[in-house]
């Protein structure tokens, strides 16, 4: 992994950049268009360093809080990433990965209720779970971790190319009073606290 960018930058950015540089002398506008496309892909896959706080459950993604709801006694907080947000996802808290499960599905817009049936990768860490959910244009979920890995708060979990949503399903002991965000609020992956742990 190149510092400052996620692996998707190489896959999606380098080919149009190379093609653009080769074609620009022959077909200026088309070549320059490819160069611009490649630069946009590299910028989209940027991966800035983050400084997680010492406690609390942090946002799994950059973006806007689009989901806060209770599911079978647990609270789910979902963050919608638009095209201008960083798309590298991070661990909400420390823990051990118990399973990483890919689930095929639809590709509805990630900010809608229908996106609950989208293609996704669920990362179960026992007390909490993270779901990386593909959007209508995002068809590529790239987890970096696997079963048995030990995670630190704010550690990189993976990235989703081109628009998506990331959710954290909090432990049963976390109540609505412990939340530190509301729907529509902008958060930063690995840094913004979405909930405090009452057991801490």
UniProtKB/TrEMBL annotation:
The keyword Membrane applies. This is Phosphatidylserine decarboxylase. InterPro entries: PS_Dcarbxylase, PSD-A. One of its GO terms (molecular function) is phosphatidylserine decarboxylase activity. Residues 94-115 are annotated as: Disordered. It comes from the Archaea. Keywords: Cell membrane, Decarboxylase, Lipid biosynthesis, Lipid metabolism, Lyase, Membrane, Phospholipid biosynthesis, Phospholipid metabolism, Pyruvate, Transmembrane, Transmembrane helix, Zymogen. The lineage of its organism: Archaea, Methanobacteriati, Methanobacteriota, Stenosarchaea group, Halobacteria. The keyword Signal does not apply. It comes from Halolamina salifodinae. GO terms for biological process: phospholipid biosynthetic process. Its EC number is 4.1.1.65. The chain crosses the membrane at residues 20-44.
């Amino acid at each position: 992994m190149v510092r400052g960018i996620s692996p998707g930058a190489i896959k999606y950015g380098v080919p149009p950049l190379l093609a653009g540089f080769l074609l620009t002398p022959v077909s200026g506008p088309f070549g320059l268009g490819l160069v611009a496309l490649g630069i946009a892909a590299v910028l989209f896959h940027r991966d800035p360093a983050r400084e997680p706080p010492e406690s609390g459950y942090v946002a799994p993604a950059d973006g806007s809080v689009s989901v806060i709801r209770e599911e079978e006694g647990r609270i789910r907080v979902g963050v919608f990433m638009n095209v201008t947000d960083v798309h590298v996802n991070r661990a909400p808290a420390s823990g051990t990965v118990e399973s990483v499960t890919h689930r095929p599905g639809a590709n509805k817009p990630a900010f809608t209720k229908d996106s609950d049936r989208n293609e996704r990768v669920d990362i179960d860490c026992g007390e909490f779970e993270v779901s990386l959910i593909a959007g209508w244009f995002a068809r590529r979920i790239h987890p970096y971790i696997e079963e048995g890995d030990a995670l630190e708060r704010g550690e990189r979990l993976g990235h989703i190319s081109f628009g998506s949503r990331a959710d954290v399903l909090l432990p049963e002991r976390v109540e609505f009073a412990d939340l530190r965000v509301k729907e529509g609020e902008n958060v930063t992956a690995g840094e913004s606290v979405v909930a405090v742990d009452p057991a801490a």
